[in-house]
Design brief:
7-stranded mixed beta sheet, 3 helices
Length: 155
């Protein structure tokens, strides 16, 4: 496999370019925002997967939000996905701090353009909370965000 294919399979960024109208993932955009703001490195931030290693890691997961917003048109004018951030570390204070750094960067962000997509607002739904202790005794903290963005495929 190519290095790009390996990165895609691992949940890491593929460094892909975007064309007008290309459907893009909110996870790709938030991944790029968090790594460019030095909240996490590409070695410790993952999309849609929480790998068993390394011990200290952040992961982004997209899940359903409300239906797309339609304003007197057949096309959606905004979409509202939700994103969960999970931070894991060998100490609970470290796991919480890692998720708190994501909250500091993203909560209240917008309007802003990320990778050519307009984000009208990103809002924390709650502060970081303890999620679980995994089978290796590592602590996981999580939090959720509501995201409002202009559909990437609109023209």
């Amino acid at each position: 496999r190519t290095s790009r294919a390996r990165r895609a399979a691992s949940g890491r960024s593929t460094g892909r370019g975007r064309k007008a109208g290309e459907d893009v993932s909110v996870l790709d955009d938030l991944y790029d925002r968090l790594t460019s703001a030095s909240v996490a490195t590409t070695a410790e931030l993952y999309k849609a997967v929480l790998p068993s290693t390394p011990d200290e890691v952040l992961a982004l997961f997209e899940y359903g939000g409300p239906a797309p917003v339609h304003a007197m048109t057949q096309r959606a004018v905004a979409e509202e996905p939700h994103v969960q951030v999970v931070g894991r570390a060998t100490r609970p204070d470290t796991a919480r701090f890692r998720v708190q750094r994501v909250m500091t960067e993203l909560d209240g962000l917008g309007p802003v353009s990320i990778n050519g997509v307009t984000y009208l607002g990103i809002y924390a739904l709650q502060p970081p909370f303890p999620l679980r202790t995994d089978e290796a005794g590592r602590y996981e903290f999580a939090m959720n965000f509501a995201v409002t963005r202009v559909p990437a495929t609109s023209s």
